[in-house]
Amino acid sequence: YPLRRQRQMCIRDRMRMAEYKQIHKVEVEKKPFKLTKKMIALLVIAIVLVVGVITAYIVTADKDGYTSSVKDGSTEVISGDVSVTKKGLYEYLLDNYGANEVLNEAYNKITAKEITDQDAIDAKVKEQKNRYAEYSGSFETYAKNQGYSDAKAFEKEVVVPEAKSELLEEKYLDTKFNDVCKKYNVSYLKIVEYSKESDALKALKTVTSADAMTALMNANSSSSTDLGFVCSKSATTTVDKKIIKALSKFTSLKTDGVYKEAVKLSTGKYAVVYAYNTDKSAQKNDIVENLLNLGDVKTDIESYYLKKYKFTVEDKKVKKQIKKISSKYID
What we know:
alpha+beta, two-stranded antiparallel sheet, 9 strands
């Protein structure tokens, strides 16, 4: 999952701790160890901002399990049918939330440095709050459903970081637009499918203009598709994998027109492929919007900034967990 999804998973920490106690039939002492999201983050990592805008995330050494430890680890924080020590709780938190917390804390530091336009942040936060309100009737209700009794706390801990993250994604795609179009082979395509290659080649010769392609599609409406926006990260459930594989050939077209060859599809059929909107700059807003809907693209953006700020984790176990989320996040 991209980090935004990871963050949404993390906001249920308190609810999951309640489930943990219930499953293990744990009786809590009269003065139980009070767990907060802030404490989870502090337990998991020690953040060191290195001179020269390099951000490093380092944990202290220990001999077994995680290479970090918690003070007074043998002290019981939960007692009853099952006893839980500080060390046990700490490692439980690391197992379940460690990698997510490290990534979220790191990325929050990065977005705070990269995104500083408060007006833009406020506008995006308002947009996000309205979006959440649509899900549950009100923003306050949505926050409550996520385990927060205080909507302002939910806004600060979740909505604002999400808003900054989205603004950073938009910033990246805006400043690196041409490179991104090349990297993901962004195209706009229309296709007409034929059972025989000879029929596809014959039809291909008739497509001498946009109007001619429209006429061909109208004459073969049952086997014609306007695929619209397509890129190398498009789902193969909606776009034939052979079309995606051949995208670099279509993006090489400098002007709108039909590709010179019939393309064999994974179904065994052959397609006449017409590329349009080849002036990518004229479609910038639409392209950016489409790319922002792709999880793989979000992951690539997050990976870019994590590496830009030299994100490192010296705990092998946490590092391994992060690699399971995405091998792109850390070397």
